[in-house]
Design a protein that fits this description.
This protein is α/β, with parallel strands linked by helices and 303 residues long. 39% of the residues lie in helices and 17% in strands. The longest helix has 21 residues.
Length: 303
């Protein structure tokens, strides 16, 4: 199969399809075909298009790879809620890496649920053999968060838990089948304007997929399949892959406390802050690309 590459954002159509079981994943590539590979993972309710402005800035030196998560965009959409467990989506990540960069160690950058999935991928026992580094943006490790919420009761811990609970209140409605659907159907037609209100974004910068309405509804299965099990029964695991936390200090959905104790579990952890809200890949692509590229270069130089 011929791979289309370019220095700039992703091509309009998928460069290849990766199959894992009954799921087909639409993969998009751009940038330097001989560069160090970096895989970008999006969250809810986005597709690979979320990364267009970051990809354009990484593409000069990197081979930039993204894909539509199962359930959205041009990828398959399984019907069952259990098919959206993060273990399944992390296995999708490994399938993409094995298909597009066999034998290479790939850097990973995740946002929102893409970050949650990335955390699961780097927790695998053999993750360091295929993942060179992980940069997390606005997405918690659900097991770390669950362990934090069950830690010794202190004023600081209680304050942090209440802060994140308030920020995540909308996820309660997302747990109830059919309840949020009418609102999301309306919201899907006004998404750029909503992000202007919620995140202070210029709506002209918001690039939506034609599948947005369906993607929003399918993506609710991520919340139903994962939040309660991981918060009730957390299973934090040690992570040997170097991790960079890019903390958006003005994020209304994921507060800094979400990964407050990541250093308990991550052997090589770096933290940086940016003055951004939640959708920083759209509002602050230059800062994300700069921090991600610098971190990847440091990791590669240390090998």
């Amino acid at each position: 199969m011929t791979i289309t590459t370019a220095v700039g954002p992703f091509p309009a159509s998928a460069t290849r399809t990766v199959r894992r079981g009954d799921v087909e994943l639409a993969v998009y590539e751009c940038g330097n075909p001989d560069g160090v590979p970096v895989l970008l993972i999006h969250g809810w309710p986005d597709t690979h298009l979320l990364w267009s402005r970051v990809a354009a800035r990484l593409g000069g030196r990197h081979r930039v790879i993204a894909f539509d998560n199962r359930g959205v965009g041009s990828s398959s959409a399984p019907a069952a809620v259990e098919d959206y467990r993060i273990e399944e989506l992390a296995a999708d990540v490994r399938a993409v890496i094995d298909a597009v960069a066999p034998g290479e160690r790939v850097h990973v950058l995740g946002h929102d649920w893409g970050s949650v999935i990335g955390w699961e991928a780097v927790a695998a026992a053999d993750a360091a053999s295929v993942i060179a580094s992980f940069t997390s943006v606005s997405g918690p490790n659900l097991d770390f968060l669950g362990a934090y919420l069950r830690g010794p009761l202190t004023v600081a811990r209680l304050r942090g838990a209440l802060t994140q609970a308030a920020a995540s209140a909308y996820t309660v409605a997302f747990q109830i089948p059919k309840l949020p659907d009418p609102v999301l159907r309306v919201l899907s037609g006004r998404w750029p304007r909503f992000l202007a209100f919620f995140d202070g974004l210029d709506p002209a910068l918001v690039e939506t997929a034609p599948t947005l309405r369906t993607d929003m509804l399918n993506g609710l299965k991520l919340y139903r399949a994962n939040i309660r099990p991981h918060l009730r029964h957390p299973r934090p695991r040690p992570i040997e892959v170097p991790v960079q936390l890019i903390v958006a200090t003005r994020d209304r959905a994921v507060r800094p406390v979400a990964n407050a104790e990541a250093d308990r579990w991550v052997a090589r952890l770096t933290r940086v802050e940016i003055p951004a809200r939640h959708w920083s890949p759209i509002s602050h692509p230059a800062e994300l690309a700069r921090h991600a590229a610098a971190f990847m270069a440091r990791v590669d130089a240390s090998r």
